[in-house]
Amino acid sequence: MTIDEMRRELQLRLKKERFAHSIGVANTAVKLAKRFGVDETKAYIAGLLHDCAREFENDELPAQAELRGIKIGEVERAMPLLLHAYISAKMIKEVYGVDDAEISQAIWRHTVGARDMTKLDKIIYFADMIEPNRNYPGVEELRTLAENAELDEIMLTAFSESIIFVVQKNSLVHPETVAARNFLLLKR
């Protein structure tokens, strides 16, 4: 499938706002890829398709994960929305014909992060936070960081902000997010 075909298929499957978000992430990922020397085509595709499983409602996600042999942890069981990242990572091959381990991994990791993320992983995670349709307190500071800071510094701030956000909502903090943040701190 060409990128244009992927875009058209995604547009048919997602709600209008989610599709706009996906385009925003794809374009932001390309800008970050240019800055950090990452393959721009891979960044665009990963950004475009990162939320492709959001075509399913939250209550459908556990069944969709099980269909694909995805292990559901206790945090994901309590917060099924997190499963969309893992399902999307599998759907890119099933639906869009994308058979690329780097793109799949970046999509898999875009919601909670992971230890030892690649540059592409980090770019998709962060592009998802700062794409132009995002509007929340502190997003402008994060966008400025994207232009000035090193990638690990950007990610350290991104993980910290994400953890603060979920703690303030009295939600569960995914252990992989904590591990990813700690990994960067220990690497310093």
CATH topology description: Hypothetical protein af1432
**Tally of individual helices:** 11
CATH level-1 class: Mainly Alpha
Low-confidence stretches: none
Instruction: Say how many strands there are.
Output: 0
Structural domain tally = 1
Shape: globular
Profile the largest sheet. Answer: none
Q: Element order, helices and strands?
A: HHHHHHHHHHH
What is shown here, in short?
The protein is mainly α and 188 residues long. Helix content is 68%, strand content 0%.
Structural notes for this entry:
It contains eleven helices and no strands. With 188 residues, it is mainly alpha-helical. The chain has a single domain, classed as Hypothetical protein af1432 (Orthogonal Bundle). The termini are far apart. The mean pLDDT is 97.
